[in-house]
Specification:
The chain has a two-stranded antiparallel ribbon. 24% of the residues are buried. It has 4 helices and 2 strands, in the order ββαααα. It has a domain of 70 residues. With 101 residues, it is of the alpha+beta class.
Amino acid sequence: MCSATTIRPAIWGKTVIDPFEDSAPAGQDLTEYDKSHIKLYMRLLDAAADGADWREAVEVLFGIDPIREPDRARHVHGSHLARAHWMTHTGYRHLLRDSRN
C-alpha cells in the first residue's frame, strides 16, 4: 500500500510529499526503495537520537496523524526506523559495494 509521505519543502512555499510504503523492506538485500529513502532513514535516526516523540516524527516525516491512525502510524514509524537501524549496521555495506562496481 502506498501513501503520501516524506514531507520536504518545495518551490512557491508548497510542500512536496514523496511516496512511501507502509512497511519498509525487511529482507537482507538493499533495495531501490532503501536507496531512494536514505534521507528519510537519516531523519528518523536523527529524531530518535534527539529524543523526539515517535508521534511527532511520524506526523512530520510521513504526514500521518497518529491520533486518527494510531496503529498505522506506529507501524509505519516502527518499520522504517527498524530499516534505518539496519542500514546503519548492515545496509551501508551494500552501498559501499555497489559504489565500487
